[in-house]
Amino acid sequence: MTLLPHPVTGAPFASPVPPGTGWPGDPATAQTPVARTAAGVRRLAATPDPAELAARITVCRACPRLVDWREEVATTKRAAFADQPYWGRPVPGLGPLDARVLVVGLAPAAHGANRTGRNFTGDRSGDWLYAALHRAGYASQPQSWAAGDGLELTGVRIVAPVRCAPPANKPTGEERATCAPWFEASLRISEPHVEAILCLGSIGWDATVTALRGAGWHVPRPKPRFGHGARAAVATPSGRPVELVGCYHVSQQNTFTGRLTQDMLDDVLASLPG
After folding, report:
1. Cα–Cα distance for residue pair 134/223, rounded to 1 Å
2. Which CATH number fits domain 4-270: 3.30.200.100, 3.20.20.70, 3.40.1010.10, 3.40.470.10?
3. 41-73 tens-digit pLDDT
């Protein structure tokens, strides 16, 4: 396989990027255990070590359809990125572990996070999200184009219920269920610090509610309804209150049509713990 230079570091990588070869922010090594089944995900997600959890997420191979798709995309590529290596693996969370705000998306974009290895990076959705996070004081810069570009987040952490790019941006119910223990583990790590969970889109909202219940959180019944600016009171297993906040997803379908405007996004972010 031809080795290509990383767009930031210039170091050569195969595509997809193998673990432990020096990609900026890669937490995995060649010795990181690999989940190959749903049972394997449940077992390996039980680690209490955040760094080890991130490493295990990035080498997961439990969903054959998603593995085949993410690696096919990483090999064939989009013409605009033909000279770049693709991450082509599951994407870990981004941001400080003690963040007071948790932002929940859905899944990596095929030529965004699946290419760059970082949530909402290298695509139009990320352009919107990071510009808004920068305006709100959560991000050190308004752009996010590649791992290693200097972006730093303060007070906010970004995760996704599904860690691999799915075909047509639509993971199956089985794939979401298989990936759920990774998400629940991320919630456990954030639990001591988080004060608000911002869900981008109804799918992210529903996945978060399901994962919160799976992780032992207290969630109202009937299930809180999603809406832009919707708010619901949930609580950690110990009873500490946390606010669940809804926001239309920063997808082009919403931003190009005006369903979600910059002012709407800024207003939601301004309402979160500062």
Report:
1. 32
2. 3.40.470.10
3. 999 999 999 999 999 999 999 999 999 999 999
Tell me if the bond preceding 222 is cis, omega within 30° of 0: yes
Q: Which two tokens stand for residue 101?
A: 């705000």
Sign, Cα dihedral of 222, 267, 199, 99: negative
Nearest to 237 by CA among 212, 265, 272: 212
Torsion of Cα atoms, 63 then 42 then 57 then 123, to 10°:
60
pLDDT in tens, 222-265: 999 999 999 999 999 999 999 999 999 999 999 999 999 999 99
Q: Across-strand partners of 245?
A: 198, 231
Give the containing element (helix H, strand E) for 156: strand 156-159
d(CA 168, CA 148): 28
